[in-house]
Structures are given as C-alpha cells and as structure tokens.
Amino acid sequence: MKIATYNVNGINGRLPVLLRWLNESKPDVVCLQELKAPQEKFPEQSIREAGYSAVWNGQKSWNGVAILSRKGPIEEVCRTLPGGDNDTHSRYLEATVNGMSVSCIYLPNGNPYPGEKFEYKLDWFQRLSKHAKSLFRQEQPVILCGDYNVMPTDLDVYKPEKYINDALFRPESREAWQALLKQGWTDALRHLYPNEPIYTFWDYFRNAWGRNAGLRIDHFLLNEAALRKLKGAGVDKEVRGWEKSSDHAPVWVEMGV
User: Fold this and answer.
1) Which regions form coiled coils (predicted)?
2) Which CATH architecture is the domain 2-255 placed in?
3) Residue environment code for 166-202, b if the CB has 16+ CB neighbours within 10 A, otherwise e
4) What's the rounded Cα separation, in Å, for the pair 199 and 183?
C-alpha cells in the first residue's frame, strides 16, 4: 500500500496538478495540506471521479487538510488536535483507513521569529507531542504525516547557515521534533536514507528549484507496528517542476501487508 503526503498550496488553483499526480502515481491513501479552501469549496466531485473518497477540514484562504483513499472507507476520528479549545486553524485530521491510524498534519510555520506566531508553533508542537504519545501505543499501524514545517538536521536544508533564525530551523523547533522521536516514532525517510540530502520543498523565489536549494519539511513518522510494514519511501521530486505546481513535492511510503 502506498501512502502519500502532499502540501498542495491551494487545492482548487492546483487541481490539474493534483489530478495528474494522482493518476500517474496512484497512491492508495493521500494526506493533503494547505487546501486554502472553505469546507464547501473542496473539489469533492473531481476527487471522486479520480477514484478517491475523501474527508476534509477546510478553511477560507488558509490552512485546510484532507485525507483521500482509493482502498477502503475513511473513518474519521477527529479534526481538531486535542488541547486547543480556542484554536480555529484547520491543521489536523485523524482517521482510520484500512486498519491503519493516519493523521494528516499541517504544523504552523512560526515565522517571524521571535513573536506570537513562533510561540503558537511551539504550543501546537507540544499539543501534538502529547496526543502522539497516546497514538504511539496503539497496536495497529499509526502514521503521522504531513507538513511539519521543521528541518530536523543540517542534512535537511541546502544551506543551514541561512536559516539560523528561521522558525523552521530554530533549536526550539528541532528540539520539539526530537521530543517526538524520543517517544519511539521513526522518521521513515531518514530510517531508509540516513545520510542522503533529501528535499521536499523548493521556494518559488531565487530559482530555488533550478538550483536544488531545497528543504525537507514534509515527514512521515511511524509507530512500531507501521515500521514493521515499511518497504520503501521517496519523494516525487519531478512534480515540483510541473507548470503551476505547489512549492512542495509529494512524499510517500510503501507499506507491506
């Protein structure tokens, strides 16, 4: 089974790119972030015609997450990360699909640092870590995937010295990431490719794509049951080069039975 995560950066404006990728790559389960569409504007009909059922949590102009499946029903568990009673951002969606727990995550960017947005990022990270601890103990495979807006190590950014005071690379953000890993979660791509530079995002500016000046900020975290099924992982890097594409590329894992 192929499970993918993709920050589409506006689902309606980039729908042709999304549909082309779904047709060519044929992932079985897909987590989408940054829909930038209210609930009623999600292109459900087009997604269904592509062969996928969907649940989504939209938000006008910003944020928004969705889970798609072409293999079995999606049983929604929750669409709000616990602990944020006053948090109105659509950044989390959790469901059961084919006997797996799948959480779609769009973690706050946090820039500019320092400031309220960075504090919100760290608070959201803490809430995620608390919830993840209970998810990790489940006997079924559990996958936490999406745009985490964090570059865990120097290997995940083309020029580390440029990002010293960027919220995605601040020590506080990387420490929050490490706190998650210490619960027992496995970073799927790093598990399979421990020493290779891997990028999932290339800015639209300064010819970042052409220079391969990228960042790895889209991640898969697996619990022990999911790790036992892991067969492969990768980035559909070429999608970033398509016309009118998102500044992210799809990331995927292959899971055995």
Assistant:
1) none
2) 4-Layer Sandwich (3.60)
3) bbbbbebbbebbeebeeeebbbbbbebeeeeebbbbb
4) 25
Count of positions (residues) in the chain: 257
User: Hey, where are the domains in the chain?
Assistant: 2-255
pLDDT in 10s for each residue of the chain, 257 residues: 999 999 999 999 999 999 999 999 999 999 999 999 999 999 999 999 999 999 999 999 999 999 999 998 999 999 999 998 889 999 999 999 999 999 999 999 999 999 999 999 999 999 999 999 999 999 999 999 999 999 999 999 999 999 999 999 999 999 999 999 999 999 999 999 999 999 999 999 999 999 999 999 999 999 999 999 999 999 999 999 999 999 999 999 999 97
